[in-house]
Specification:
Strand content: under 5%
Distance between the termini: 20 Å
Helix content: 55-70%
């Protein structure tokens, strides 16, 4: 970023914010920062081809798919801003001494990155839909509001019902918050380290930590407090909540027994496959899958407004903390001798 060609000491915080925001939009074209948008589309298409078949359809497919989507969001957010501050550290020093307000500078980045994250989230949702991912008709608000209306004898088809946001709206908000919080985390790292190489070295380790403590991998209960600080945990929770994870069929065990059950003799020449055939003939397959689903349900994935709000709240809170730390570190940039 080139230096601000004006006397910053006589410009207020709001005016400085606008100046830096305009510069970021110009650099979006001049430094080819726009490339993160087609990259988001390509990554979304790859994830859709890999895990899109079972996404929002089965428990196992949804858990794997939401984890993959969370990884996509974190990856997009990291690449948006991991080098944004460290690549212009010397310029920030000079302009800070000339009267630049760090809050204006960071505020411009926050606004710019928020718009970028929103665009990436929209692109991801469009690409997922275009590549065959079927979005559910029902969503958290419809499930909860519908229940409340039914309890009060109100017809769900009445006028105010159409005002409830659709599934893709909840999906967009959740994906945006994951991407934006990851973006602000990377922005914080960019403010702490002193070179682009250092930022790119640190990023993979931070990403691995996010993935390990996301809840996708079974860890001892003693690590639960660490998981609460991870964007990945709240991202997976939010996506599973809006997917109504607990109501989806658990098919992995059934499918595995179906493919190898003819080799398992339970006695008298009867195989597991024979028993499964009897279950299907009696129309009890769905009942068995429902029981398997109930056994694998999770309280934190219940499709409730409370669980969704908890996920959104933690993602937003973590993002705010990262932004504040960024400001604090940059306020002391004049004391940096390196």
């Amino acid at each position: 970023m080139s230096e601000v060609q004006t006397d910053l000491k006589h410009i207020g915080r709001l005016r400085q914010l606008i100046i830096y925001l305009n510069k970021l939009f110009r650099l979006f074209i001049l430094q080819n920062d726009w490339k993160v948008l087609p990259m988001a589309a390509i990554i979304a298409a790859m994830v859709s081809l890999a895990v899109g078949k079972g996404l929002f359809k089965t428990m196992e497919g949804t858990f794997q798919g939401t984890f993959a989507l969370t990884c996509v969001c974190i990856w997009n957010g990291f690449f948006n801003s991991i080098q944004s501050i460290c690549r212009e550290r010397a310029i920030i020093k000079r302009e800070h001494r000339a009267g630049m307000h760090i809050t204006s500078y960071v505020g411009a980045h926050v606004i710019y990155q928020a718009l970028l994250c929103a665009a990436q989230s929209i692109i991801t949702i469009i690409v997922l839909g275009a590549t065959g991912v079927d979005y559910p008709a029902e969503h958290v608000l419809s499930l909860n509001v519908g229940t409340q209306m039914a309890q009060h004898g109100i017809d769900a088809a009445s006028g105010g019902w159409v005002m409830v946001p659709q599934f893709t709206t909840e999906l967009f908000i959740t994906m945006f918050l994951i991407t934006f919080a990851a973006d602000l985390l990377a922005l914080m790292i960019s403010a702490i380290v002193h070179s682009e190489m250092a930022a790119m070295t640190v990023m993979p380790f931070v990403l691995i930590i996010q993935l390990v403590f996301s809840g996708f991998i079974a860890l001892p209960a003693s690590f639960s407090d660490i998981s609460d600080l991870m964007l990945s945990k709240w991202g997976v929770q939010g996506l599973c909540v809006i997917a109504d994870y607990n109501s989806l069929p658990a098919v992995m065990i059934w499918n595995r027994m179906s493919s190898g059950g003819d080799r398992i003799d339970v006695g008298g020449g009867v195989t597991v496959k024979d028993i499964m055939n009897i279950v299907e003939e009696q129309g009890m397959r769905d009942t068995v899958l429902q029981k398997l689903s109930e056994a694998n349900s999770r309280e934190d994935f219940v499709a409730s407004v409370q669980n969704l709000a908890e996920s959104w709240r933690y993602l937003l809170l973590l993002g705010v903390v990262f932004a504040i730390i960024t400001v604090v570190f940059l306020e002391f940039i004049d004391h940096d001798k390196r």
